[in-house]
């Protein structure tokens, strides 16, 4: 009885003073809400009546049909620095969708930037300086550059046009951006007619410091095709590379570490591989840059593993070492993974999003602590389900882009008081 009397007062206090949530920069978010506000909690291992879950609640969903698309793929996020509204950018077979999630339980589909040429199952989008940069494996697609501030005053189901269509390359598998340097790195690129890989599929260097005037500054071809990469301004434990711009390329059968500070003279630092390589796919540094967590996309199907993450010690970039392997709880294929604080968020295809605690990674002690399975019918090793997860919003909202289901928004389970 006393709890019922206090609840309205607590709700008012929350609205006035705490905005119902906080972001813990350690990556271990604790979201406190006084009222449900439409979020469907994960209870007894299920959310919204169908999604297996642990520790993460269902917030909202926009289907592929609502976005007039056949399949989903990549995703990223943007927070408007003027309005503080959050937006999800969802890659689709026929374009890139923009979703206003400032009211997370009632997301608004603003519209779509159609593909530059033809539809493709592969699209990748990143954000720099309030601008989206989009590539695709569609033949002749090039780079679409889109001013995200247009979303502030847009209606619903708008068809947008790119501000710039950069065509110094055609198709590409991925784009990586280092926000500290203002450079974009396009990997797995071909020429406009698709007949030839550019720089052997290695990274192209594009200066985007003026986002609407991208400049070609060459590329790097000494190593093999790069499927994905992370590029950082190094501030880790190896004193010889402090302040350098370092690329870690996931190059099909190995990691390649390259100093790309001088775009006219990239310098190979080292390479490292590992046992039973399937396909070296994508990885991400821990925030202290001591460790690199790598996903292999084909080892589950070729070698019969459960989901496997290979972790490298990067304290000496000249001599990286394998640190440990982490095996997940299902046979599902791992795809893209990102580190925020002490948590590793993994898009795990048919197993959905998995969340792994890496706070004791130095002692080889990491563990899965939560998940939200967007593909409820199976955890098999197949290319369906969660393609990407974007965990970097300060609000704690987490975007999952699903090949079969479209856009799904989740957040860490609420603690009700």
From TrEMBL:
A Pfam family: LVIVD
Stored InterPro entries: Choice_anch_B, LVIVD, Quino_amine_DH_bsu
The protein's name: Choice-of-anchor B family protein
Source organism (scientific name): Aquimarina hainanensis
């Amino acid at each position: 009885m006393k709890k019922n009397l206090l609840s309205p007062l607590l709700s008012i206090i929350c609205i006035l003073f705490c905005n119902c949530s906080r972001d813990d920069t350690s990556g271990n978010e604790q979201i406190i809400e006084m009222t449900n506000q439409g979020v469907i909690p994960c209870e007894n291992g299920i959310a919204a009546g169908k999604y297996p879950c642990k520790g993460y609640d269902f917030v909202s969903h926009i289907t592929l049909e609502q976005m007039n698309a056949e399949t989903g793929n990549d995703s990223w996020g943007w927070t408007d620095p003027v309005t503080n509204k959050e937006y999800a950018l969802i890659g689709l077979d026929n374009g890139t969708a923009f979703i206003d999630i400032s009211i997370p339980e009632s997301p608004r589909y603003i519209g779509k930037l159609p593909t530059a040429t033809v539809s493709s199952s592969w699209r990748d989008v990143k954000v720099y300086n309030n601008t989206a940069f989009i590539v695709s494996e569609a033949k002749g697609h090039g780079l679409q550059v889109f001013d995200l501030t247009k979303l502030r005053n847009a209606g619903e189901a708008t068809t947008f046009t790119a501000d710039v269509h950069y065509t110094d390359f055609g198709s590409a598998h991925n784009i990586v951006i280092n926000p500290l340097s203002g450079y974009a790195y396009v990997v797995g690129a071909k020429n406009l007619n698709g007949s030839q890989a550019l720089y052997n599929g290695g990274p192209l260097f594009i200066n985007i410091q003026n986002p609407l005037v991208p400049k070609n500054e060459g590329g790097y071809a000494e190593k093999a095709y790069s499927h994905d990469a992370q590029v950082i301004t190094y501030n880790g434990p190896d004193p010889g590379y402090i302040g350098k711009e370092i690329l870690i390329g996931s190059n099909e059968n190995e990691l390649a570490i390259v100093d790309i500070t001088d775009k006219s003279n990239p310098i190979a630092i080292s390479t490292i591989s590992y046992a039973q390589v399937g396909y070296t796919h994508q990885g991400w540094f821990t925030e202290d840059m001591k460790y690199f967590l790598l996903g292999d996309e084909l080892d589950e199907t070729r070698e019969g593993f459960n989901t496997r993450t290979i972790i490298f010690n990067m304290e000496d970039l000249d001599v990286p070492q394998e640190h440990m392997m982490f095996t997940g709880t299902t046979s599902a294929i791992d795809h893209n993974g990102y580190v925020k604080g002490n948590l590793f968020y993994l898009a795990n295809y048919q197993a959905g999003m998995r969340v792994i605690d890496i706070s004791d990674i130095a002692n080889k002690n990491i563990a899965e602590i939560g998940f939200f399975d967007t593909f409820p019918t199976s955890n098999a090793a197949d290319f369906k389900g969660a393609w990407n997860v974007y965990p970097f919003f300060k609000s704690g909202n987490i975007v999952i882009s699903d090949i079969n289901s479209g856009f799904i928004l989740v957040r860490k389970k609420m603690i009700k008081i």
